[in-house]
Amino acid sequence: MKKRWVYPAIYLAFAAVVLASVLWYQNDASNSKDTPNGAFQNNEKAVPVSVSKEVFKMPAKDPKSVVIKKEFFNPDASAKEQEAALVFYNNIYYQNKGIDLATESGKTFDVTAAMSGNVTKSVKDPELGYVVEVEHANGLITHYSSLASVKVKEGDMVNQGEVVGAAGQNLYDKDAKIHAHFEIRKDGIAVDPVSAWNQSASQIEKQVDKQEQASKKDEKASVEKEKSDAAKDSSAAPKQKQEKESSSTSENTKESSTNDN
Length: 261
Known about the structure:
261 residues; alpha+beta; flat; 4 helices
């Protein structure tokens, strides 16, 4: 301790420890700022919230003010119900792939997004009127047509309940007058919107998968039945031919016997 360099060395060592602690603290604080905190990033931009728990709702601002004027065409429905779900256009009957909504008074109404998603189409069609299509989770698409006007454009993000347009008339289904046509599709397969109410996108996807499996099963059964019927016809042909030849031989013998007499 009597050496002159001891105290300066102690001071320098202490200063080095303090400096190192300060640098370590600043570095740790800097790293923590790069980590998202809750729903916001360090630049205060909101992180999109998952909408996977949303369920499909009636696409009308006031659901109680509209009714279903034309139902979805169900292959399992009665003949009367199927007839009511047909659209007559250009002398041809078409199956209704969605539902037609209208007010009892026949007035227009605001059409809203049935579920949050991205607008993939917003155009005016000469036969369908204004058309809007929105893509949702699990590859589901909602289709809105027979609109008199639209309030969204392609590329927009719409929230559930947000107005996409107003109900109007179109040339495709003039008899429906002022209405909005609404469809739900998955991989090109139309889903009955009524069965989709209060169902999530994942639940609808499972529903469509079951429909596809049932359809493939029915198609396979139909093919197997056709093969079975063809096999029966094939096996019956030689027997019919043999019976015909036997009958012909018998007639010839009878004719010969008659001539001898």
